[in-house]
Write a structure and sequence with these properties.
Structural class: mainly alpha
Order of helices and strands: HHH
Shape: elongated
Helix content: over 70%
Number of strands: 0
Radius of gyration: 14 Å
Number of helices: 3
Distance between the termini: 35 Å
């Protein structure tokens, strides 16, 4: 069961490397904004921080898997 607003790993696997990089950039920007909101006590959805962190980790893992596969080939 995936939480609302998060991205399934299967959806990430279908994206191109450029799309993953763009998604990663966007998530890092969102993570920065969420950290800023948390620091100023304006955070409305604390669980979103965890979702963003996990999605960033999933994207990085997928990028590393692809890089390893490309190096092997």
């Amino acid at each position: 069961m995936m939480a609302k607003g998060s991205i399934a790993v299967e959806d990430l696997r279908t994206k191109t490397d450029d799309q993953l990089s763009a998604e990663l950039t966007e998530l890092k920007r969102e993570q920065y904004n969420l950290r800023f909101q948390a620091a100023t006590n304006q955070l409305e959805a604390p669980a979103r921080i965890r979702q963003v962190r996990r999605t960033i980790a999933q994207i990085k893992t997928l990028q590393n898997e692809r890089a390893a596969a490309a190096a092997k080939a």
